[in-house]
Amino acid sequence: MLPNVRSSNDLITSRAATRDGFLKQAFTKTHKAAPYISEAHELAHVLEHIEDIDQLSHISNPRVQAALIAAAGFSDKARGWMHDSELEPALAQVLEHIKHNAPEAWREEIVYRFLLTRGDTLGGSIRNVTGAEGGFQLSRAIVAALEAGGIQHTPALSKSNKAKTVSIEWLNRLLVFDRKPVFIANNVDAILLDTSVFMPGTVTLENPSSFLACGELKGGIDPAGADEHWKTANSAFGRIRNIFGNLSMTIPSLFFIGAAIEVAMAQEIFTRLQDGRLTYAANLTVPQQVADLANWLISL
Q1: Which of 53, 183, 269, 278 is surrounded by the fewest CB atoms within 10 Å?
Q2: d(CA 281, CA 292)
């Protein structure tokens, strides 16, 4: 029995935690939306000085061109897959459509379309932040547990995102986040390795005997997506069990940590804890459960 998970009810996300999670998301969206709002104001200012919509095809300002491409419905990711020779006629078609449907309000139409595309970009950005939340909170809890125990450790941060921890090393343990071992052929959110089995400088994810634990981390707070996140995690656990079973090797400890855990989902998780298919589980919105999981990991 886990210290702070004595029944399935202990795993259920409270209404207060869900509310606080949505509030946090709203503040994050407000912060991340600021640059897009600024771009929209800049675009609107430029359009005020354009007398005819046909003049837009001759604007050479790269920022304005990028904004117009966004107004045409192309995200930054889509732009990366297309050549200017493909984007230019597409933009011309959209401008012609706007000219036909909003001959007097074409400026506002362009700004609104720009905001629609940037809104989709913002949504993707927020999903990325939410998805990384589990790893962030777990890494913070592990560092706190290591510091409390006086254990020397070395966290490594992502080169592209200094707020994201990609690994934590201590003693003869290495915890890596969001990695895809070739022999598993799928991404695993967290993997704890026993580095004592490696020669110095030869640590790899392709030695199954070094695997001590594998975890799935789901940071989304929306109850509507909870069941799907659990299905994805449960499938990953089944895949790991099958792979290690086929290799006739000890299955690593499996753990789950999620922010949105509903009643039926909590019951399934607790059942798997009882029958041994899961070794540990925690609700991301319950700090003590996250701390317990961190202490358990560093004890392996």
Answers
A1: 183
A2: 10
Per the listing, tokens 């069941």 go with: 227
Question: φ and ψ at 284, to 5 degrees?
Answer: -65, -25
Q: Are 189 and 135 in contact (CB under 8 A)?
A: yes
Q: What is the pLDDT tens value at each position of the chain, 300 positions in all?
A: 788 999 999 999 999 999 998 898 888 888 888 888 888 888 888 888 887 787 787 777 778 888 888 887 777 777 778 777 777 777 778 888 887 888 888 888 889 988 888 888 877 776 766 667 778 889 999 999 999 999 999 998 888 776 688 999 999 999 999 999 999 999 999 999 999 999 888 889 999 999 999 999 998 888 988 899 999 999 999 999 999 999 999 999 999 999 999 999 999 999 999 999 999 999 999 999 999 999 999 999
Report d(CA 33, CA 45) in Å as an integer.
Answer: 19
In 3D, which of 140, 77, 74 has the Cα closest to residue 294?
140
Tokens read off for 254: 């499996």
For 141, other C-beta atoms within 10 Å of its C-beta total 22
Give the pair of three-digit tokens for residue 169.
């090393």
**Angle, helix 106-148 to helix 15-48, in steps of 10 degrees:** 140
Q: Which domains does the chain have, with CATH numbers?
A: 8-26+129-299 (3.40.91.10), 29-125 (1.10.238.90)
Which DSSP symbol is given to 251? P
Q: Of 228, 282, 226, 227, whose CA–CA distance to 254 is shortest? A: 282
Non-local (6+) Cβ contacts of 234 within 8 A are 268, 272
User: Tokens at residue 115, please?
Assistant: 């905001």
Which strand ranges, in their side-by-side order, compose the sheet holding 153-157? 153-157, 165-170, 173-179, 188-194, 211-218, 253-258, 280-283
Burial class from Cβ neighbours inside 10 Å (0-12, 13-18, 19+) for residue 159 reads exposed
